[in-house]
Specification:
Length: 616
């Protein structure tokens, strides 16, 4: 067991002092960088300390590599970092696995061409994605919900296409988001009020939501004030940059589509799913898309459909669609919902709401159905690149008719630290209830140490945060705040599949393989956390590719916290030396004898066509 700080010798106390001083220097560096970005309001005293660099020069002369595995023996020619050059300006908004040119070579049926199609090894870029000229740090939340700097996503097409729907407006050097949408031109708040009259949003029963075909994610943006986290997705299509706008606003979103591949989420993940004129053919493909929504919807969860074909009798003329076509479309949706054993709770105007039953025993009609509707393959959350199935995912078994299949959850925020049913039931092999509690305590300690290093973590400076190897979500739980949100990524090669438990805690996340690019635009995360990631992917794929992807999705002047074995971090530190990042290695908070170390990095500010940076 690692020694505790209270029982260590003078060498460890010295290490802790170094740890804190490095943190202060990085804090002042980041604070100064935030000021330079255009919207920061840093302390002028901090700026003076940053300029004078008196303390930081002392720190930089200290030997942090004393315990760092042989780095001192490396000669100069070997220790030189490979310099990675900027990519061409045309790649400022490059999304490797949703590249428009590559997409057009795939079939259009069932949206196959809008799915993930990643570049072959020889097509990968080995350069740094530049920020556009004039790029600035986004406004802090909650101002970012309503305003995005034009220079960060300079696309005006939506202001024309969606002008009458109150999506987005261009004003001077910013975009303004009035909170409207195609189905809620009077604003998302009033629309959510209508839903909350039927769905238990206010009391914390509904915490996680899925927004399919989200536009600029105003629904998810306005749910945040009600303590609901929505995972929004939309394809990269003719509505240029809608997901990019969402993330610039500080709202969780990914590039995605309902096509032929299963959604990258576990079964029974979301408390609510939503489609507001999302153009998904719910009645088509024998109900496959609704069956996929049913798979990711928790027992007792809600599905909201607003827009066509709901209320077709009144609106068919304004929609300029034939009555019989709309009538048939709604009939198919109603039939599939009945097959799924969803109960229709509400229909008024253009909004309809269904609720999924809490268990299979609540579905008497299903027992009389002779059709072979259930999926034959064992229920598995191994969904990465797996084809959607036209079948119904079975409920977990229950012992009584009123028991919630898979386990009943507490309301949020109580469920954040309550033991997830997947853990208490033993559904995640190798993780006991005791191990879950230990993991929470460990990450509370780690996050406390991170906050000593970087005092901006709690200030709202870092809004969009990613945990690249999330484990049980305890890093995100320790950070929980209305000022930020965390995308918990569970690698597809992780030893334990924990994403279902993360959702049960009231957090959101996604499956991903870090040998490929993430489904997001460049410059969409403020802070990235990578715990054990490079040890996990050792010999699986190229470390440089993963670091370049981190650089692509990290905002200029954003920060990265690596936590890994010392030998791994020495290699990482050498590599990022050629990436326009500034970095410092520090000991584990329990002292220098712990082989796990922490590497803190800050991405320099630079834009296309310039060599400007924030390096000192």
């Amino acid at each position: 067991m690692a020694p505790k700080p209270s029982s260590v010798d003078g060498r460890t106390r010295s290490s802790v002092q170094i740890f804190i001083v490095v943190g202060l220097c990085l804090f002042f560096y980041i604070l100064g960088a935030w000021q330079r970005s255009g919207f920061g309001k840093g302390d002028s005293i901090a700026m003076e300390i940053t300029k004078s660099g008196s303390d930081c020069n002392i720190v930089s002369n200290l030997n942090f590599e004393t315990h760092h595995g042989g780095e001192a023996e490396t000669n100069d020619s070997e220790s030189q970092s490979k310099i990675l050059e900027p990519c061409d300006a045309q790649y400022t908004d490059y999304t490797p696995c949703q590249d428009q040119r590559r997409a057009m070579t795939f079939p259009r049926n069932n949206m196959i061409y809008r799915e993930r199609h990643c570049p072959a090894e020889e097509e990968k870029l080995h350069c740094l994605i530049p920020a556009p000229k004039g790029y600035v740090t986004p406004f802090p939340w909650p101002k970012s919900r309503d305003y995005v700097p034009f220079a960060n996503a300079p696309y005006k097409s939506l202001t024309v296409e969606k002008a009458v729907q109150n999506w987005i407006q261009y004003e001077g050097n910013v975009f303004r988001f009035p909170g409207g949408g195609t189905q809620f031109p009077q604003g998302a708040d009033k629309y959510i009020d209508q839903l909350a009259a039927v769905i238990p949003i206010k009391d914390g029963t509904v915490r996680t939501a899925l927004d399919t075909g989200c536009g600029v994610a105003s629904w998810g943006a306005y749910l945040l004030s009600r303590n609901v986290l929505a995972m929004s997705f939309a394809p990269r299509d003719s509505h240029e940059a809608q997901v990019q706008f969402a993330l610039e606003r500080g709202v969780p979103a990914v590039i995605g589509v309902l096509g032929t591949i299963k959604l990258p989420y576990p079964s029974r993940a979301f408390d609510m799913a939503h489609c507001s004129r999302c153009l998904i053919p719910w009645g088509g493909n024998d109900g496959t898309y609704l069956m996929e929504v049913d798979r990711v919807l928790r027992p007792g969860g809600y599905w909201v459909l607003s827009g066509p074909p709901i209320n077709w009798k009144t609106n068919y003329k304004s929609w300029q669609r034939p009555r019989d076509e709309l009538e048939e479309e709604q009939r198919k949706i109603e039939d599939i919902a009945k097959l799924l054993c969803w109960e229709k709770k509400f229909e008024k105007g253009e909004i309809a709401i269904w609720q999924k039953r809490v268990n299979a025993d609540s579905c008497p009609d299903r027992q009389d159905d002779s059709r072979d509707i259930f999926c034959k393959s064992p229920v598995s959350d191994d969904v990465w690149y797996e084809k959607m199935e036209t079948c119904v995912t079975p409920y977990p078994s229950v012992e009584s008719s009123d028991e919630v299949a898979g386990g009943k959850l507490k309301t949020f925020p109580s469920r954040l630290y309550d033991v997830p049913p997947r853990i208490s039931s033993g559904s995640v092999p190798g993780i006991s209830v005791e191990a879950y509690h230990e993991d929470n305590n460990k990450w509370k300690r780690h996050v406390k140490a991170y906050k000593k290093i970087n005092k901006l973590i709690d200030t709202g400076r870092y809004r969009n945060i990613m945990d690249m190897n999330a484990g049980l979500g305890s890093f995100a739980a320790a950070l929980e705040s209305s000022k930020l949100w965390v995308m918990n990524v569970v690698p597809t090669i992780a030893e334990k599949n924990t994403l279902g438990a993360i959702f049960e805690r009231g957090l959101i996340g996604i499956y991903h393989d870090w040998c490929e690019a993430f489904s997001t635009y460049p410059r969409t995360y403020d802070l990235i956390h990578a715990h054990g990631l490079f040890s996990l992917y050792k010999d699986k794929c190229n470390m440089e590719d993963i670091l370049l992807e981190m650089d692509r999705i990290l905002r200029p002047e954003g920060a990265v916290v690596f936590r890994d074995e010392v030998d791994v971090l020495v290699k990482v530190k050498k590599m990022i030396g050629g990436m326009r990042w500034d970095a410092k290695m520090v000991d584990h908070e329990d002292g220098p004898l712990v082989p796990e170390k922490v590497l803190i990095a800050v991405k320099q500010y630079w834009v296309v066509g310039g060599n400007n940076s924030t390096s000192h």
